[in-house]
Amino acid sequence: LSVVAVLLLIIIVAVVLGLTVGRNTRTLKTTFTERCEEFKGYDCEKLWGVFERAYVGLDPCEVPMEAYDPLMAAVPFKPECNRKIFWSKTKDVVHDFTEKRDCFYTVEETLLGSVLNGLTWCGKEGSSETFTTGCPGWTDCANNTVRSFWNRVSAAFADGACGDVTVMLNGSIATPFHPASVFASIEVKRFHFPRVKRLNVVLVTQENFVTNCTNASLKDLQKELDQGMTYDCKEVSEAQIQECSSNPEKPCGACW
Ligand code: APR
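# adenosine-5-diphosphoribose complex -> structure
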């Protein structure tokens, strides 16, 4: 009897896994196009095609950021001053804020950032399919399909930054400005004076915060900025940001 039970269990697991994998593959395109349709004036079927051509048939560890150049060209980032917000290790707090308030937007609120937010995809040599499982992880290899996309889209988003730029960094970690982060390695390098006039760091603190604006990594950040660019850093509690998120009548300028 136990042999039968084990066999049955194996069959059930295999069927469930099979269905899940199949469904994931089919729904990547669906998710992409559904999220894309939220933005008016784009041919989402065509964008899916441009997107796919960046990685299908390639070793998923050998997709350079430039592979996504045609996709960036198909959806140019409109230049907009003073409203872009960047972040590092503050994903939840920053998105809770940008979702609820119309002060700033992150790359994840733009068309390309939003269609692929939270998703995994890759191709395989000799195949014309898109896979959503078995893809290399973020740090498995430098030029992986997903990481190269985020590097490329972040570069494009940062290239269009101007005026006052804001970044939310994490005051609960020892190195809020970490050299390996996308913010440090890609985005900051693209802020140029006089187009970008000012960088406002919002250092998000919690009760037992370990870092403040005198942190050594923030000195490194200041050193990276062009001559003439103004730098500012404020320690702001997560509670204060949440308070601003939930009180839309509070002016954006009064949030911190
Ligand atoms: N493993 C898996 N995912 C990772 C890893 C990792 N080691 N590092 C980064 N990521 C992905 C995750 O999706 C994570 O939520 O990048 C996201 C942001 O990573 P952080 O280390 O928190 O921040 P950072 O690398 O600075 O990237 C955020 O890049 O997306 C742009 O404009 C955006 O300013 C923002 C910045």
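# post-check
The radius of gyration is 21 Å.
The chain is about 40% helix and 15% strand.
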